[in-house]
Amino acid sequence: MAAAASVSLPGARALPTWSSSVSGESQSLALSSWAARPRSARPLRAPARMGNVNEGKGIFAPVVVVVRNIVGRKRFNQLRGKAIALHSQVITEFCKTIGADAKQRQGLIRLAKKNGEKLGFLA
């Protein structure tokens, strides 16, 4: 019988065996080859913005910004919250007067918010 000739190639690595995978010998080799891979060039998403899309736009936006700077942001937000609550109460009373249901009332409140954004009240 002929003996098998052993040929070694430069840079060739031996395949991992069951015993080497149990002992963890090939893990450092796998991690180093994984870390050397280039990452995909996926475009980064723009960060999510909370708030008004029309910020700074609208006919009342400059007035709102000036008042916010004079009064202070914290106090201004308190006043804005009270104004929004009062407006919602007015809409609710109007809906009771005309006999609109809760779904229609909610639609009117959403419409008021949209209009406030467009006019610049939420700048």
Describe the structure.
The protein has about 120 residues and is mainly alpha-helical. The chain has five helices and no strands. The longest helix has 26 residues, at about 75-100. The protein is elongated and about 90 Å long. The N and C termini lie far apart (about 90 Å). The model has no long low-confidence stretch (mean pLDDT about 75). It comes from Oryza punctata (Red rice). This is Proton gradient regulation 5.
Mean pLDDT: 77
Question: Class by helix and strand content?
Answer: mainly alpha
Helix content, binned percent: 55-70%
Major sheet: none
Oligomer designation: single chain
| Beta strands, count | 0
Distance between the ends = 90 Å
User: Radius of gyration in whole Å, from Cα?
Assistant: 34 Å
- Shape designation: elongated
Percent strand = under 5%
Poorly predicted regions: none
What letter string, H or E per element, gives the SSE order? Answer: HHHHH
Count of helical segments? 5
Topology summary:
Blueprint: H1 18-23, H2 27-35, H3 61-71, H4 73-98, H5 102-119
Helix pairs in contact: 3-4, 4-5
